[in-house]
């Protein structure tokens, strides 16, 4: 059996737990829908700057390259977390464009950190930038997410 994800090892002291999925109701089943499952397990927080941050465990069922996460699984996590970063900043949106650079293979059954920043708001367009890392220097992927207000 896989070891349980050690979220506490990566959690920073100035992070406050935050139930980001509840901002959009109960619909986010693809990534956050099975918190005890073998695919994704996520925890959301607000960091010291009030930006949304997530810890994401990539389980064995996210496998793409042997022993490592599928790019689509990283994209799914970035899609949800960066979209919710816009919601958490007060913008009800859907994602219109998600542009990802994959930088380094992400080992299965490890916990990665997603940092987010809302970099601009122009009319209905909210640009959110995100980084998927090992919590230190290791950068797995970085993304720009163009979100479009729907309300
Ligand atoms: C419930 C939310 C959960 C959020 C967390 C999870 C994130 C998700 O997975 S969301 C699901 C994935 N996303 C989707 O399925 C979205 C599907 N697309 C749509 O619904 C529509 O195309 C939508 C809403 C994005 C835009 O349509 P519409 O409302 O007609 O906007 P539209 O008038 O065409 O464009 C508004 C502005 O955005 C720009 N824009 C819209 N789409 C894009 C795009 N893909 N790329 C670049 N710019 C775009 C337009 O150029 C326009 O800019 P400007 O105001 O400067 O002229």
From TrEMBL:
Its main location: membrane. It is a peripheral membrane protein. Keywords: Apoptosis, Cell membrane, Cell projection, Cytoplasm, Fatty acid metabolism, Hydrolase, Lipid metabolism, Membrane, Transit peptide. The keyword Kinase does not apply. The keyword Lipid metabolism applies. Residues 67-139 form the Thioesterase domain. Its EC number is 3.1.2.2. It is an enzyme of class 3 (hydrolase). It comes from the Bacteria. Belongs to the THEM4/THEM5 thioesterase family. PANTHER family: ACYL-COENZYME A THIOESTERASE THEM4. This is Acyl-coenzyme A thioesterase THEM4. It comes from Geoalkalibacter halelectricus.
């Amino acid at each position: 059996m896989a070891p349980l994800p050690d979220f506490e090892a990566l959690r920073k002291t100035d992070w406050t737990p935050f139930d980001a999925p509840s901002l959009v109701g109960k619909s986010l089943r693809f990534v956050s829908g099975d918190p005890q499952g073998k695919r994704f397990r996520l925890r959301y927080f607000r960091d010291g700057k009030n930006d949304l941050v997530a810890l994401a465990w990539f389980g064995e069922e996210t496998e793409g390259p042997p022993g490592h996460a599928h790019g689509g699984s990283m994209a799914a996590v970035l899609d949800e977390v960066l979209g919710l970063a816009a919601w958490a900043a007060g913008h009800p949106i859907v994602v219109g464009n998600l542009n990802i650079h994959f930088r380094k293979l992400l080992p299965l059954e490890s916990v990665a950190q997603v940092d987010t920043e809302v970099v601009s708001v122009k009319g209905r367009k909210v640009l959110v930038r995100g980084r998927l890392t090992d919590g230190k220097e290791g950068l797995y992927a970085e993304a720009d997410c163009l979100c479009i207000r729907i309300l």
